[in-house]
Amino acid sequence: MKVYIEKEKKQLDLAAKTGADLLEKLKINPATVLLVKNKEIILPDEALQDSDEIQILSVISGG
Amino acid sequence: MAKCNKCEQKAVYSNQGLVLCKEHFLDYFETKIEKTIKKYNLFSPSDQVCIAASGGKDSLAALYTTMQFCKEHSISFFALAIDEGIGGYRDHTLDDLRNFCQAYEIPLHIVSFKEQYGATLDQIRDKALATLNKKPCTVCGIFRRTSLNRTARALGATKLVTGHNLDDEAQSLLMNQLLGNMSHNASLGPITGLSANDKFVPRVKPLYFILEKETRLFAFLKKFKVEFNECPNINLSFRMQVRDQLNEMENKLPGAKHGMVNAFLEILPLLKKHYQEKKTEFSYCLECGDACSGKVCNACRLEEELELKD
Ligand code: SF4
Ligand SMILES: [Zn+2]
Ligand SMILES: [Zn+2]
User: Fold this and answer.
1) N or C: which end of chain A has fewer CB within 10 A?
2) Is B89 helix (H, G, I), strand (E, B) or coil?
């Protein structure tokens, strides 16, 4: 699936079963991000599919 | 798929057993802010409210929710932004802010370091680091706080709203603890500077009990245009390290930030009392006339040290 990491402005192609699984693979602390699947907010336990487009939004403020 | 605790809709928020859909989250968020405003008497009907804004998500959320409250209670308000002069960063967030204020018809004032201190942060950061060993965030913080207070006062404000949230407060507490600056904690809390003096506009934090993550979610659901933007100087800051450590803690122990801040609020009255008694009489800065504890205020001292004065 296509994964966009906002903080790093980076696009990746990855496979993951759930949002939590994806964050673990990327070593991203769930407390610091929001997950968006096909433009809608999801919780980390939500199942993901290969056709999904995921955005990982950073919640930390920049100064 | 998780469902909202209050209805059958799809959940967008989950924290320590509270699971909410979009509609119920927005309601929870706005209600929490309203409760904070009421519990700590952040505003009174005769206030002239100045909302400090930068264009980042916290400031837009503070701006939006304060605007709602002020409109409902017929309190007058305006927005104030400080342009520190940080290329590639502040110019973008200020654009977001201008658009936002235009869309909601909020009066907006912008003042810059350049006009107030004769130089942008970009121009002074290297010198501050090299000659004074002061990090950009230290210089930025002193000048910004001073500019906010002076300008808010000049514009007739009786309250100054900042977008500080629970994360900011927890960070400040931990930083002060680690640095041994306990007296600084006495000037934290949801409202400060009430009894200070006529040169100081009291500061209030409506987002005091709101997590940064909740603010981002609010901004997303409200479709505020907030692009992720990070100040180029943040990597040098101690706050950033503390922020990351706290987020690690929060991940392992959900509710840690709330726990810290709530415990702090229990002892805050004692801290205030303790440091008030110790405090000597207020004096006024010999250079600018602002309230300060020594002969010259922090901003004027910094201006001198950086040889910004003409
Ligand atoms: S990160 Fe530091 S330099 Fe950048 S805006 Fe915040 S306080 Fe100022
Ligand atoms: Zn609901
Ligand atoms: Zn001064």
Assistant:
1) N
2) coil
**ipTM of the modeled complex:** 0.96
Q: E strands of B123-255, at which residues? A: 159-161, 191-192, 203-204
Q: What proportion of chain B, given as a percentage, has pLDDT over 70?
A: 97
Dist CA B296 CA B286 (whole Å): 6
Question: Please, what sign has the CA dihedral across residues B249, B251, B256, B261?
Answer: positive
Q: What end-to-end distance do the CA atoms of chain B give, in Å?
A: 64
Q: Domain containing A40: what range?
A: 2-58
Q: How many domains does chain A have?
A: 1
**Contact: B228, A46; criterion CB under 8 Å:** no
Q: Nearest residue on chain B to A6, judged by CA atoms?
A: B228
- How far apart CA B44 and CA B204 sit, in angstroms, is 12
Assess whether the C-beta atom of B4 lies below 6 angstroms from ligand 1.
no
* Residue A36 included in any domain: yes
- Structural domain includes residue A35: yes
Q: What is the CATH number of the domain that holds A17?
A: 3.10.20.30
Over residues B84-132, the pLDDT tens digits come to: 999 989 998 999 999 999 999 999 999 999 999 999 999 999 999 999 9
Q: Residue B143's CB: how many other CB atoms inside 10 A?
A: 24
Q: Residues for chain B: how many in total?
A: 310
pTM check: above 0.90: yes
Domain B40-271 sits in CATH at: 3.40.50.620
B 185-224 residues inside an 8 A Cβ radius of A: 212-213, 215-217, 220-221
Cα–Cα distance measured from residue B191 to residue B98, given in angstroms and rounded to the nearest whole number? 27
Name every residue whose Cβ is closer than 8 Å to that of residue B206 and which is 6 or more positions away in sequence: B33, B36, B37, B42, B62, B65, B66, B69, B161
What is the atom index within ligand 1 of the atom nearest the CA of B121? 3
Instruction: Indicate yes or no: CB of A62 within 8 angstroms of CB of B247.
Output: no
